[in-house]
Amino acid sequence: MYDLQPRVVYTDCITAIDWLRNKKTASMKKNPVLKKAEVFLKAMGCEVDQIKIVYWNNDVWGEIPVDFENIIIRSVPFCEVRRR
């Protein structure tokens, strides 16, 4: 395993920040994927606690570059994406 320091995650999603901090999803749905996520967050609690979670303020810093790339890809017709 790699020991990458500092461990920082930037997100513009308040829900994701809450899920990581609380190690619990806020969904009332009985979704098996969300349940797996909760089990993972609780099992890896010590590791998760070492990750600094920073809110990415889109108004100040602009869109997160990865989000911007996904928006561009989604806006291009599928056949054009496959040709690239």
Q: Can you walk through the features of this model?
A:
- The protein is mainly alpha-helical and 84 residues long.
- The chain has one domain (8-83).
- Helices cover 56% and strands 10% of the residues.
- It has six helices and two strands.
- The chain has helices at residues 14-22, 32-43, 45-49, 58-61, 65-75, 78-83, and strands at residues 8-11, 52-55.
- A two-stranded parallel ribbon has the order 1-2.
- The longest helix is centred in the middle third of the chain and has 12 residues, at 32-43.
Short characterization:
With 84 residues, the chain is mainly α.
Give the overall form.
flat
Number of helices: 6
**Unreliable runs:** 72-84
Provide the succession of SSEs: EHHHEHHH
Number of domains: 1
Q: Could you tell me the strand content as a percent range?
A: 5-15%
Q: What share of the residues lie within helices?
A: 55-70%
How are strands sequenced across the largest beta sheet? 1-2
Global Rg: 16 Å
Question: How do the helices and strands line up, and which of them pair or pack?
Answer:
Elements: E1 8-11, H1 14-22, H2 32-43, H3 45-49, E2 52-55, H4 58-61, H5 65-75, H6 78-83
Key terms:
single chain, 84 residues, mainly alpha, two-stranded parallel ribbon, 6 helices, 2 strands, 56% helix, disordered C terminus
